[in-house]
Amino acid sequence: MAHVPSIGEAAERVSRTCSLADDVGRLRYVSGAREKALDRLGITRVRDLLLHVPHRYLDFTNTVCIGAAQVGDEVTVVGTVDKVTLKRPKPRMQIVEMYVIDETGVVQASFFRQPWIADQVHAGDMVALSGKLTFAYGFKQMKAPFYEVLSASTEKGSYARVLPVHPVGEGITASWMRRIVSAALADVGDVCDYLPARLVARHRLLSLGRALRQVHYPTSMDCKEPARRRLAYDELLCLQLALLTRQRLSLAGVEPTVHATSGPHIDALVDAMPFALTYEQCVAVDQIFNDMGSPHVMNRLLLGDVGTGKTAVASMAMAAVADTGTQASMMAPTSVLARQYAEKLGPLLDKAGIAWVLITGSTSADERARAREGIAVGSITVVFGTTAILSDDIMFNRLTLVVIDEQHRFGVDQRAALRRKGAGADLLTMTATPIPRTLALSIYGDVNCSRITQRPVEGAGITTKSLAPVNLDVAWTAIREAVDAGHQAYVICPLVDDSDDGSELDDVPEASRSKSTQLNSAVRTYETLSGRTYPDLRVALLHGRQSAAEKDDVMARFRAGEIDVLVSTTVVEVGVDVPNATVMVVLDADRFGLATLHQLRGRVGRGRDAGTVYLSCAAKRGTPARTRLDALEATSDGFELADLDLKLRHEGEVLGYRQHGGTNLQVVDLVADADLIEAAHEDARELENDDPTLSQPVNRALALEVRDRYSAYFDEIEHA
Q: Of 21, 328, 689, 702, which cross-links 401 as Cys (Cβ 3.0–4.6 Å)?
């Protein structure tokens, strides 16, 4: 017969569960200094510590003797330190060499720029080394392996266990982190499970208490993954529920508009289109119309690769607004882009009988006054603009649709300010940055997504070529030939000027970068090209440290054909359309992520003439950096590249998107946990439909967990 907990036992478990929200300083071994060290790691509460899972494990149940260890394998060996030396082959280079022996052989371990190891490990110590085994200079070697000093009293075989290795930082070692986590598990690890039993059973998950123990101290290497997946599911489900709850609270008491999804303006706009909508565009329009015609506020993200016609889809939503007799606004991140949308969609709206206006920071006082009056009385239906439309003097008569392009380039407050101009307005956000489905589901759990991959009008195409810096003459010649033929070119650099150290370039991991001694800066490249390479051409400079007016002026002149060669950083990445540009050269291309490079190359070949993109990179064939660039040469499918980017990086931050609300997923692996992401998304929607407030007894513990994990989300609503 199963044991039934007594009231006292149950009360004790509830008490331990509640203590997860306590400050981490209440735990054993967490002194003032260690508490500060944990705080630097983002660990402030007991829950944070227990969810600070190991990033690797040492399998001491499967160690090999040094003599039998195979070169090229990842192995763990245990032996006695014979000698430790600190070498300084160069003024700023420090190498610790450790020789470890057992009955069968010797292995040399090298540690770079970690001189303190020579003070921590001494001859005679028993150590465990874990890493990839190589062979050079007559020795088996490990470069920068993980090491663990074992107790001098440790008997052979007593260390046969799986040892966790937690992420640590200044002020706390891996061994101290293990000691603190072990004490925390002993004191508060036996907690109540907040997940409803049906979800635990549905996905065959471990109980919470068991998962916490097995993820930190697995009894075998096979036990750690089921434990991690349980915690990953929790993280995903709580995030999804927090997003959905925040959306529900923010719309509480708001009266949505049921838009007309058929009418004369929609029909006229379809007739005015210069091309027939593709199947995917039609599907996206139907999804948007279903949302707009429902008694619920629309919150939809339109994902579309470069040139797939997102603005055409957005214009159909604007026509529905016109048939409803209300108003729409479309906000772009720059005045150049806002003007471009007005120039593209304005004539179509004119043919459909839909009044529109453009408002930017450069709009004259008289034009602004006329626009302000028309918007206020409702005679203007569509407003294109930048953040200038957020001004208090711009008051809509009845704003029922908000369209935001590249929303990640606006702050949360700016997006919210626009929506406040029309209480209950439907929201359509657009982005040309391809996002993998798993990432979209995890960070946009409160948003419905529509995807477009087909181009309504095929451009002339783009050819992408990788070349070594020594062969850049090929690219410079291509620019000369393009300009002589009446076209224009881009030159993209990773840095603004030579004083930058490149530390902000975290788009790709260090292992995927070539070891370029000096990165190219836009300022120096501009001086070289304008002064020596192309003294007879009109060369201009564009970067993020210029004022908004300066950047707008440069881009306006480039679009007008008054600039032949534009030297820039990635500020040209999104949106701006210059059909006459046919050549792009990207210097130090290995310092940009796949998605960024894909967005950059989408700036050329947009007209009748084909484009060519040269990616300069010093990396050799077969290296991670060249593998990424080879992928760009092989495909022009942005979503395929986004999936590859995700697999290469395994990060919670991909394609320039941070987790929704600044939250990073700590336990989830966006590639390995694709099934969990889908499951958590569906489960959250089911819970939202069945019990929106999670007030049913079976869901109350989960509600408290969601609130406790994401309290900042709800504080944001309460203080709005």
A: 328
| CB of 658 closer than 8 Å to CB of 669 | no
* Whether 470 and 440 share a structural domain: no
Q: Is the pLDDT score of 200 beyond 70?
A: yes
Our count of domains for the chain comes to 3
Segment 479-488, tens digit of pLDDT: 999 999 999 9
Asked whether 623 and 514 are in contact (CB, 8 A), the reply is: yes
pLDDT in tens, 553-595: 898 899 899 999 999 988 775 556 788 999 999 999 988 877 7
**Backbone phi, psi, residue 569, to 5°:** -90, -165
pLDDT of residue 323: 96
CATH number reported for the structural domain that contains residue 552 in this entry: 3.40.50.300
Q: How far apart are CA 580 and CA 582, in angstroms?
A: 6
How do strand 581-586 and strand 565-568 relate by DSSP bridges?
unpaired
Instruction: Identify the domain containing residue 355 by its residue range.
Output: 193-457+669-720
The residue behind tokens 């089921």 is 226
pTM of the predicted structure, to 2 decimals: 0.71
Do 703 and 572 belong together in one domain? no
Residue 548 has pLDDT above 90, yes or no: no
Burial 600-612 (b: 16+ CB within 10 A, else e): bbbbbbbbebebb
| 481 assigned to some structural domain | yes
Encoding tokens for residue 161? 């266990």
Cα–Cα distances in angstroms (integers) from residue 685 to residues 21, 446, 691, in the given order: 27, 9, 10
Residue 657 inside a domain? The answer is no
C-alpha to C-alpha distance for 645 and 434, rounded to whole angstroms = 10
Write out the two tokens for 472: 């850049």
Beta strands in 122-161 (DSSP E): 126-136, 139-143, 146-150
Which are the contacts of 157, defined by CB distance < 8 A and separation ≥ 6? none
Percent of the chain with pLDDT over 90: 45
State the distance between the two ends of the chain, measured CA to CA, in whole angstroms. Answer: 54
- Nearest CA among 158, 136, 139, 151 for reference residue 63: 158
Select from 583, 617, 635 the last residue of a domain. 635
663 occurs within a structural domain: no
Beta bridge partners of 565: 489, 539
- In three-state secondary structure terms, 649 is helix
Dihedral, 605, 607, 610, 612 alpha carbons, nearest 10: -30
CB 543, CB 522: distance < 8 Å: yes
